[in-house]
Amino acid sequence: MTAPFSPAPHGPEWTVGPNDPAIKQDRVQVPDSPIPHYGADKWSLAPLGTPAAVQPGTLIWTRFPEALSESFRRTAWLLINTPLPAALLDRDRSAAIEWYSGSSIRTTVMNDWLVFATWLQQKTITRLCDVTPGDFESYAKHVQAAESTAATKRRRLRCVSRLWAYAPNLPASDALPMPVWEDEPMSDFMSITTRSGENTTPIIHPTTMAPLLLWSRRFLTLADDITAATNRWQSLLDEVPANPGRRSQAAAAALVQQWIASGTTVLPAKARLGRRVIDFQYLAAIHGQIDTEDLSRAIKDSGYQFCLDFHAPTLVDSPIKGTIDGKPWCPGIDYKDLRTLQHSLIAAALVIVAYLTGMRPHEVLALQPGCLQRQRISAAVVRYSVHGRKYKRVRRDGRSDPNGQQRSWTTIPPVAQAIDTLERSFPHNTVLFPSARDGTIPLATPNAGPHIATLIDTANSLTQKLHLPDAYAIPPDPAGPISLRRFRRTLAWHIRRLPHGKVGLAIQYGHLTISQGEGYSSLNTAGFAALMAQEEASALIDTIEQTRRDLEGGEGVSGPAAKRLINVVNRTRGFEGTYLSAKDARKLKADTSLTIYDNPDSFLTCMFDPNRALCLRAANRQAVEPRLDDCQRNCSNIARTDRHISALEHEAQRLRSEADSPLTPKPLALRLQSRADTFAAIVNEHRATAITTSSPEETQAPA
Hints:
Elements: E1 42-44, E2 58-60, H1 66-81, H2 86-89, H3 102-122, H4 133-145, H5 150-165, H6 206-221, H7 223-239, H8 246-262, E3 266-272, E4 275-278, H9 280-287, H10 292-302, E5 307-309, E6 323-324, E7 327-328, H11 338-357, H12 361-365, E8 372-376, E9 382-390, E10 395-396, E11 399-400, E12 405-411, H13 413-425, H14 445-465, H15 486-497, H16 501-508, H17 514-518, H18 523-526, H19 528-552, E13 557-558, H20 562-571, H21 582-590, E14 596-599, E15 604-607, E16 638-641, H22 642-660, H23 666-689
Parallel strand pairs: 3-5
Antiparallel strand pairs: 1-2, 3-4, 6-7, 8-9, 9-12, 10-11, 13-16, 14-15, 15-16
């Protein structure tokens, strides 16, 4: 408990006492949650309510420097119980809201304010009112030098601004002066190329995502084996007598004598309290009707010294039916591996649902059994939909609603299979993705990453044990551990960044047309369409900037659209290092001169003009995008740089090498050789006709 605050000679008097509630009644969303006292060392934010899959945060005041703890405690009380001051709400283009959710409050106080308080302590500043403009500038430099994302750095400064915004309602000693970045552009203090609001979530690298998705699908086929072994092991444990008697003692003594007579010298062991002991639980369970204490006593009474083997298999006598590449995936399931396999199975389903629906992490984790619905459209077509709840930007009376609102996502068969598998494997759980200890509590978002890491370790271990091809191995992701929030971004990236993204989407998700593929997972209502539009705009900018670097490096451009490409690159400058808002993305897409599509699979850039595009049928001249899966060699929209030609040469060499192999059938070898000759002709034509930015004719675009 803390001492009451003595009011400063100037400024409002602080009237909240140690025994007053830290959360006022009108802010309580969960009536049965205990409300902490203002003077408590910890404030649970559970009364504010959270989405089902989000853990309620806790404010821990003992982590703050003692001299500043009360100042931040008072400001946190205002942050919880009063609306955000008008100083932050009414500013131009502000996205701030009046009432913050519990998770936002926890992040503000225990992340950003704690960082600021610790820095003030290091500077021997014990009162917020003593912070000077020079201190603010020093703190901005300190934040800038930290190893964190651009978004985190900007959030650090904005949270300090929140401290200042509450100053009129605080005693004078707590009144933080206005930060210098509130009076001047924040860019003067933060040399960060990305702007506020840019999605800086790293995608999961394709070389990691591909085998991860493969193994996730494979694990669903192993679910029945894992479930059967789990049920069998539980039934064996249930058969261990709860009230052992003489029958158990006699059976234990007979079993030990049988081991000695048969020459058994090694017994399975496990670790307990840092040392190896005989695994009595396993031995008692598999032999039935024997108590562990009776078995231990029988071994001791025999006087025989058994050796202990920590690595001895402790298999459950359950059949193995699942296969990988036509072979059983294991000789049997060790009971010690059951929990790991269960976590891996849950993680596999989690990867599939999160990646193939585009749902946000807390939306996925809040799903419950029975969320999947099937609707038969025709004799051959079934539509699958997942029913859950949306929480982002759901408000009630101006405040975040922890209950969210109902939402449905149209999805595809692999997601349906994942959900069906979990419901079948864990029939007693009341949530689809449970925590490790309780099947009625959803898995917390931070714990999803370790579950996925367990899946990866299990998959890589099976890859080695089964001597599977290297393509099965899941390599570490260059951006670090895989978190749940990265799947949504990765899906958008794959759809919009890859040359055949939307075509691949339509094929992968089993839809008949691209337009149906675009509408999957309720993209417009889930906010996913905006994310894909952003990726599309970013892909366009990357293409332009990559071409600009090629041209500035002296590379040549060939093809019917070479001059058009050079002119567009020269006309559009200043993209690199900038962030595009949704409005900027729409303007770019509306500019018909910027319909540029890099197509590395076809070794070219498409300067799309529907009136010249050979990939479009005559009746489809109104199309807004090319069919990148059907590029024609003589199309007027093609441009190639030296970068494309270099890749084309490597491909031609690869084709010739494959054609010359004695293992290649002759008809196939002839086709490969013909394709290599076609590529060689394109390379020769490029070298004969390529122009550069220094070419005089490149400044005039063709009519």
